[in-house]
Amino acid sequence: MTSTPLPEDPDPPDARALELARIIWDYLHLGHRLERSDIIVVFGSSDIRCPEWGARLWLEGWAPWILMSGGRGRLTAHWERTEAEVFAAAAERLGVSGDRILIESRSRNTGENVRFTRSLVEEKGLDPGSFILVHTPHMERRVLATFTHFWPGKKATVTSPPISLEAFPAPGTLDRFIHRLAGEIHRILEYPPRGFQAPMEVPPEVHEAWKELVALGYDGDLVG
């Protein structure tokens, strides 16, 4: 299956594509209920809403520590500072105590987020048994599968900034974002055999929605 470049100036998605995208969007949300935990881990991305959400959770007392994980990825290669450093600064602006923020700034993908976070936490002499994992809404399910694979035996609650499908992408980029949603399903299907994450069931209606989206041309973010 070969990916094609994402369109630079796409038209808005039609009603059917949006319907299929919503099926996938809803599946990618885990709907976890927050529980008080030992540490909040905010996974790196280009979305500043993630550390802001993580900061809110810390300020509400859901965990005593917050860790920002992320180096530079394909969308943040041009940043002057790493994702983790930018996220930590955002959290401090919102009132999070700097001495309660841990920074992991080497990781370049989700697997490294988990592995390097684990190394950093162990170096600090911490042994958290329960985690709140923060990422973008469409990454919830894959984050859990990756965390479970690389750090088994820990309790994890996954959450993301509460925002709708239509409001999540930047204005005028919803069609492009649907390529990302199709790519997420492809990764959930393809990554376990490659050793990148734990297997996760994809219900038939989600699998069919993904196949139809790909047939409609939403193949710009599939894995090679």
Describe it for me?
This protein has 224 residues and is of the alpha/beta class. It folds into 2 domains: 1-29 and 171-224, no CATH class; 39-159, HUPs (Rossmann fold), CATH 3.40.50. The chain has helices spanning 15-28, 49-59, 83-93, 110-123, 140-150, 174-194, 204-215, and strands at 39-43, 65-69, 101-104, 130-134, 155-159. Helix 1 (15-28) packs across helix 7 (204-215).
Give the H and E element order. HEHEHEHEHEHH
Question: Count of helical segments?
Answer: 7
Termini separation (Å)?
Answer: 7 Å
- pLDDT below 50 for ≥5 consecutive residues: which ranges? 1-6
By secondary-structure content and strand pairing, the structural class works out as alpha/beta
Mean pLDDT: 94
CATH homologous superfamily title of the largest domain: HUPs
Q: Output the radius of gyration.
A: 17 Å
What's the CATH topology name of the largest domain? Answer: Rossmann fold
Provide a compact summary of the structure.
By secondary structure, the protein is of the alpha/beta class. It is 42% helix and 11% strand.
Helix and strand layout, with pairings?
Elements: H1 15-28, E1 39-43, H2 49-59, E2 65-69, H3 83-93, E3 101-104, H4 110-123, E4 130-134, H5 140-150, E5 155-159, H6 174-194, H7 204-215
Parallel strand pairs: 1-2, 1-4, 2-3, 4-5
Helix pairs in contact: 1-6, 1-7, 2-3, 4-5, 6-7
